Amino acid sequence: MRTRIRRWQVVTTSGIVALSVVAALLGLFRPGHYLDAPAFLPQTFAQDLTMLVVGAPVLAIGLWFTVHGSLRGRFIWLGALAYMTYMWASIGLQVAFNQFFLGYVALFSLSLFTFVGGVVTTDADEVAETLVGRLAERVYAGFLLLVAVGLASLWLSELVPATLTGTTPLLVAEVGPQAMVSHFIDLSVVVPALGLASLWLWQGRPWGYVLAGVGVVFGAVLAPALTLGTFLLATGGAVTVPLVAVVFTIIPALVAAALAVNFVRVLDGSKHGRTVDEVKDTV
Question: Which of 80, 203, 274, 279 lies most in the core, judged by the most C-beta atoms within 10 Å?
Answer without folding.
Answer: 80
